[in-house]
Amino acid sequence: MSATDVTEHYQRIAERYTDYLSYSGDFVPTLAEKMVDMLRLSPDDTFVDIGGGSGIYTAAILDQVPLTTPPAVVDPFAEMLDGIPPELPVEKVHMDGFEFAAEPRSYDKVLIKETIHHIDERDELISPSSESKLPLRARVPKSLTETS
Which of 13, 56, 112, 137 is the most exposed place for a label (fewest CB within 10 A)? Predict the structure, then answer.
């Protein structure tokens, strides 16, 4: 998919995006529980959801872990961020993940879920080194990195 195709895709589905992922009452909460476990998320962590769109996963995570610092939901599409419920205690950040990574911010845990397949330059964005833009310490399970 080209960058133009991706932009058009998310602009087109933004209004119904959360509905598309909410087809089962258990799907999002169950996946969020696994994310919380994998991230070892605790209430004192500073959390960011890159490509978080409508905040559907961040909302489910907040249902499980009451973070003391409002998480940042970062998305390059304003239409997606507009889908975040106004009562959800998050910081909406309208920017690309690379722009966000260059910001002078501090955070403990990073989630990149619904957008990772759109990033060709993953090595530039994610690396275990201290020089990476988003230094990740979370373990990525082999089952998530294998391709069929």
Answer: 137
3-134: CATH superfamily: Vaccinia Virus protein VP39 (3.40.50.150)
Global pTM value: 0.70
Q: Where are the domains of the chain?
A: 3-134
- CA distance linking residue 130 with residue 119, whole number of Å: 21
Please report, in tens digits, the pLDDT of each residue of the chain (148 residues total).
566 665 565 566 556 555 555 566 788 888 899 999 989 999 999 999 988 988 999 999 999 999 999 999 999 889 889 999 999 999 999 998 778 877 888 888 888 875 554 455 555 555 544 444 454 433 334 344 444 3
By the 8 A CB rule, do 144 and 32 touch? Answer: no
Amino acid making up residue 11 = Q
Mark 75-85 as b/e (b = at least 16 C-beta within 10 Å): bbbebbbebbe
**CB burial of residue 118 (10 Å; 0-12, 13-18, 19+):** middle
